[in-house]
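Why do we bother with holo predictions? Because pocket geometry can differ from the apo form. Keep that in mind while you read this record for pyridoxal-5'-phosphate.
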Amino acid sequence: MIPITSVAFGEEEEKRVLEVLRSGMIAQGPVVAEFETAFADLCQVKHAVAVNNGTTSLIASLQVLDLKPGDEVITSPFTFIATLNAILATGATAVLADICEEDFNIDPTSVENLITERTKVIMPVHLYGQMANMKPLVNLAKKYNLTIVEDAAQAHGASYQGQMAGTFGLGSFSLYATKNLTTGEGGIITTNDDAYADRIRVMRNQGMRQRYEYVMEGNNYRLTDLQAALAIPQLNRYPETLQKRTSNAFFLSESLSDVEGLQLPKQLEGRKHVWHQYTVRLGPECAMTRDQFIEALTDAGIGYGIYYPKLVSEYAPYLDNERVQAHSTPVAANVVSQVVSLPVHDHLTQDDLNHVVRTVLQALKGKK
Ligand SMILES: *Cc1c(COP(=O)(O)O)cnc(C)c1O
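The structure, written out:
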């Protein structure tokens, strides 16, 4: 079986985790601080604040903006449910814009059509590891005085025209077990804004600046040193991890370039894709339906993912929710029924890749 994700740690992780265990200080401490510095370095950003998961990091990124009920956050309906849940957790209203055909990320034209007096935030989701089309979004943010909060949960180290993910306002990353970098559960917020970073640090720790002196309403959003110890060695070798993911993606794209009806993921001009997922789209001209295709993958022992089976607004809790504004999003509605993610992670062997290619070609071209 070739899994869709694979987590493997080495001696370096064991050593760092053991050091924390033996130190007896296992909550948030110096290792979290070390990890934050290293992550800020990766993102070429002034501040990185680690928290206990990626949903928390989205929530904190919005809470720091003091959103009021009725305030609107425009985001993509084609995302993991955490994006929507985080918006709702802050009391704001989620407004769902359409996505682009070429990268499945939020469409700036659709965003502009949905801006109202109440819009406060644009929240692009850098889906599958490729950043959204940021330039027009930045222009809209300037024009309408909005803040950009990036859901960069899948995009550690991605960039757009040379500017790193997480540097456009507030950036939110997940460190969940399946992400490119992981602490099991974890998240981290990035920003170049001193005041936001300071307030999130205080918020993370019960609103406490000094012991038992509470300066704001806070929470416990802390990551632990045990978790941070796991991430530091992964960060050190992240350039190699990205190289492997990228060369895997390029190999798949070269090998599958000539299949009728199959749209392959493209790294768009000026964007550095970090290949969290390698997602193909089966158009109507494909030789098989998506259901038949995933059955062929399963029969061949190949793990796959459907990210995501429905638009977030289509699930029962959000259908009649007055704080979820689902507009007509024809591109998203179409794409959601056609995507399949194939394994691209850095533990694939050449044999694994050949097997994936052979299976896909056989299924969609009838080739042996
Ligand atoms: C993983 C993910 C999150 C949430 O992260 P958790 O760490 O699982 O809470 C948010 N948004 C997107 C797009 C994700 O993929």
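Residues 238-255 form the longest helix (18 residues).
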